[in-house]
Amino acid sequence: MRKILSDKQEFDTLMVARFKRSVLNFIGLILTMSAHIASGIRQSVRSWLFNVISVLIFWGGLVNINQLLHFLVVIDECRSASDIVAELEKLVRSYGFEYYGIVRQPKPDENPMQLVLAGHWPDGWPQLYIAKKYVLIDPTIRYLGQARGGFRWRDALHAFRSDPHRKRMERMLSDSVRYGLTDGYIFPVHGRGGLMGNMTVGGKPIDLSPIEISLFDAVAKKAFWRLLEYKHGDLAEITKPVDTRMTRREMEVLNYLADGLTSNEISRILKISNHTVDWYMNGIQDKLNAKNRQHVVALSFRLGLVT
């Protein structure tokens, strides 16, 4: 923690120095522009104006990234769920997002609003979302199952161009626009059992750089697990990510199992006994905390152990 705080202080010092240089550059550019205007050199004025805008955009981007890094540091110092939510809302507002939500992964028969760990939505939108059962066809929720990182809402619809529920997805997005949810981003959170939840931010369209998307992805994971720890401590222990280490032989058995092979077939390929194959299977099942072989395969795909 001390090292992180030290790194942050060093980063802040660097930002202040860059800001001072930017201000001096800005003043110099303004003075130069004034001189050019006085002499009637319009082309040079346009060139210098472009430089001024570039300086301001550069500084603005650094300020926003600093806010993301600040959150990743202070969240470990938060002592309650309300403290975490306050810091998260401050970050979301600094980026211009009007709405956000952190939820556990919903199932078709569950009310998604009962799974909310934190959030702020337009009045009436949650009720409409539930009444029309949009959770079943929401393209952002469906695409989360195959996403490894954060993505933009509008990009999710492209993945379902030939989906039979395409028109209903479009109606959902049309409804969301009427409620002020024009565009946004969503970030998946994975755990031992696969996809555990997500964080989404949105409102009016805002462009994030690849670096900002990566940092928001880290923010989503940090905020999700800390809030889950405070609100559902027992669930956090069960679902928290684990480092599942498989031996080379276990990975071979697992991949053949995922291909649909029986113990007899695997034993012939690997030239080991059926008993040895079953021994490896039991070890894999214990490591994944799976109920049976079918569950082993399902968890393996969710965790990316097999493809």
In short:
By secondary structure, the protein is of the alpha+beta class. The chain contains 13 helices and 5 strands.
Low-pLDDT regions: 1-5, 27-39, 52-59
Largest sheet: 5 strands, antiparallel
What is the ordering of alpha helices and beta strands? HHHEEHHEHHEEHHHHHH
Report the count of strand segments.
Answer: 5
Strand order of the largest sheet: 2-1-5-4-3
Mean pLDDT reading: 79
CATH architecture of the largest domain: 2-Layer Sandwich
Question: What gyration radius follows from the Cα positions, in whole Å?
Answer: 25 Å
Shape category: globular
Q: How would you name the CATH homologous superfamily of the largest domain?
A: Transcription factor LuxR-like, autoinducer-binding domain
User: How much helix is in the residues?
Assistant: 55-70%
CATH class call of the largest domain: Alpha Beta
Q: Indicate the proportion of strand residues.
A: 5-15%
Query: Any idea how many domains?
Result: 3
Structural class: alpha+beta
Distance between the termini: 37 Å
The number of helical runs is: 13
Remind me, CATH topology of the largest domain?
Beta-Lactamase
